[in-house]
Amino acid sequence: MSVVSEVAGYWGAGALRTLNAFRTGFGALENDPPVVTPYTVIYEGGKVSLRYYAARGPIRHKTPLLLVSALIKRPFILDLQKGRSVIESLTNQGFDLYFIDWIPPDSSDTWRGFDAYVNGDVANAVRAVQIHSGVELINLLGYCFGALLSLMYTALHQRNIKNLITLTVPFDMSNRDLPITNFADAMSPAIADTITSIYGNCPAWMMNSFFTAMNPTHHLIDKYVGRYKNQSRDNYAETFELFEKWMQSDVPLAGQIFRELTSELSRENKLYRNLMKVGEEVVNLRNITAPLLNMIADFDDVVHPNASKALPEFVGSEDKRNLHFPTGHMGAAVSSSSLKKLWPEIGKWLIDRE
User: Fold this and answer.
1) CA quadruple 132, 137, 141, 142: dihedral sign
2) What is the pLDDT of residues 63-82, one digit of tens each?
3) How high is the pLDDT of residue 227?
4) Dist CA 302 CA 177 (whole Å)
């Protein structure tokens, strides 16, 4: 079979996956792959299903770790395969890990904004961790949109957080070096209002189209060429299929938080300018005094490194720094180099502060 035929075959399979996602719903929970690392659900409420993964190995650290994933896709990329799992790495390092599995919003959730997710869902998850672990101060780690929620929560509820880790956090939205900013500039409040007035929430298929349009060459051609070039590598085909499944796992974004994200954060940059209100309070990052590790992916094509790197300057913590790693946005979670080097370094940073 020729190179062109094989690449075309991979492309055709990808097109069928996309069509099937439109037919069945992009982020349908029943489409998740089988569980890799066993867990127990210890709390459900609001839009949170809180998982507990027990620590493994000879050492068990006292302070539990709560991981907050992004709202816009299913979270199984963080537990993709045995040997390629952030959750496996952290539990093997001796951390009792709690994980927010976000329940996708439905038509009754259009009112949900940052206040509902930060002061409601994340706050309730933190309290559930405190009760379950018997520990008052917990470690908090957020990835991408989850890092944004974690940052806001810590600024408003510092008394509950021992250490804060933010991965690829979209903080300074004035940066205009990535294609996603073109959408932010084009998404006027009137357009956002029109979308939510028609659909209630921003639909999953629309969220997927935003990300596909950011790098159409990669999504339509390059990744299938890469699939062909790596076809002889052990387990590459299985990993590729799982990753593609995750790329089609978009979920709706609640109407109110979609409007706040596109207007107050993306266009007006209110968090960076210390003007962002969540509920009745301004999110003053100077209120954060917990040690901060701000991880930046140097080749990130979703959250530009320059959108993250200023964060330590804005918090009140004495112990704070940026951690740069040569990976892309998703590579922070699934690349073999990240799992061998980045996540052990993050674990060591936490252990040094036990």
Assistant:
1) positive
2) 999 999 999 889 988 998 89
3) 47
4) 10
Active site residues: 144, 300, 329
> How far, in Å, CA of 65 to CA of 343, rounded?
13
- Distance, in Å, from the CA atom of 110 to the CA atom of 216, rounded to the nearest integer, reads 30
DSSP state of 118: I
Range of lowest pLDDT (77-81, 129-133, 286-290):
77-81
Residue environment code for 167-177, b if the CB has 16+ CB neighbours within 10 A, otherwise e: bbbbbbbebee
Q: How far apart are CA 76 and CA 69, in angstroms?
A: 10
> Quick one: which H or E segment has residue 38?
none
Beta strands in the chain (DSSP E): 40-45, 48-53, 65-68, 79-81, 84-85, 97-102, 138-143, 161-167, 277-278, 281-282, 292-297, 320-325
Give the pairing of strands 281-282 and 277-278: antiparallel
Q: Contact at 8 Å (CB) between 105 and 254?
A: yes
- CA torsion angle for 110, 114, 117, 118 (degrees, to 10)? -170
Burial zone of 283 (CB within 10 Å; 0-12 exposed, 13-18 middle, 19+ buried): buried
Helix, strand, or coil here: 97? strand
Closest CA to 81 of 50, 37, 51, 38: 37
* Whether 165 contacts 151, CB under 8 Å: no
Backbone angles phi, psi at 110, to 5 degrees: -65, -25
pLDDT tens, residue by residue, 3-14: 545 544 544 444
Kindly give the interhelix angle for 3-24 and 236-247, rounded to the nearest 10 degrees.
40
